[in-house]
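Notebook entry, structure prediction.
Reason for the run: the old model in the group folder had no record of what sequence produced it. Starting over properly, with the input documented here first.
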Amino acid sequence: MRIDVHHIRAFLAVAEALQFSVAADRLHMTQPALSRIIKALEESVGAALLARTTRRVELTNAGRVFAEHCQLALTHIDQAVTLARRAEAGNIGHLRIAYMDFAINGTLPGIVESFGKKFPSISIDLVHMPSTVQKEAMLDSTIDVGFMIGPFSAPNVETRVFGREPMVALLPAAHPLAARKTLRLADLAEERFVLGAPHSWEAFRHHFFSICHRAGFSPTIAQEASTSDGIIGLVAANTGVSIYPECIRNIQRSGLCIRPLADKDTAIDMVVCWRADTRNPSVETFVSELTMTAPRRNAR
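New structure, fully documented this time:
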C-alpha cells in the first residue's frame, strides 16, 4: 500500500484517542474500515504500530516514533498548503523593481518600506536603471516593476502615473539669483548648465530641452555628470546651474541653493509600469497596494 495523508491522519486519530470506535467517529468512517487502514499501514511500514487487547489500544515504541514524525509531516504539509495559497494570492514571492534617481530620491523608499511591513514574505530586489534601460528590461521581462520617467507605451505593458514632480532650480549658494525666493526658467537663459549625461539621462534630457525651448532659449551645457550626486556636486562647485525635480529637497548638500520655478509647465511625470501578462502574482499585490496608498502620498 502506498502511504498517503489520509492513512496518516487515520493513524494519528487512533494514536490520540487510543480507541478505534472513537477515532472512527471522528473520521466519519466505520470501525472495520479504520482497522483495515491501520493493518495495511503497519504492513507498509513493516512494524507493529499499535498493541491491541480486548480492552485497550496502546502505541508501540515504533508507533510512538512513527506518530511523532507523522505529526511533523502533517504540520509541514499544512504549512505548505497555506504558503502555496498565499503565494497564489501574491502574498509570498519575489519582486525585481527597477528605479531611477528621481524615484529613489522621492517617494519610492517610503513605498517599499510600507509594502515590506505589510507583506514581509515578498522579497524585493531594487535595481538602479535609467528610464530608457528600464523600458527595454520591461519588454524583455527581466524586471517586474519599473519606476521611470514617462510616458511609456508598449504592448502588454501597463503604466500609471505615481507622481508629478515640479521642477526646481539648483544654484551655487553664492549665485546672485540665490537671493530670489522664486525664479522663472527664463531667468536661467544666460546661465551655463550642469546636465545628466546622455547615456543615463536620455529621458530627462528630452524633458529638459523641451521646457527650455518653451521658455524661449537653447541652454548652454557646461558639464555633464552620470549621477545625481555628480550634478549636485558640480553645481555646488560653481561649475554651473541645473534644474531637477523637487525631490532634490530630500538630499542635504552644503553649497547648494534650491529655488522653486514659477513656470507651470515644467513638471515631469513619474510613472510605474509592469507587464499585463505577468505570471508573478506578487506584481498585482504590489500594484494594488500602490494604488490604495497613492491618495495618502499625494495628500502629503
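Summary: The first strand starts at residue 50 and ends at 52.
The old model has been moved to the deprecated folder.
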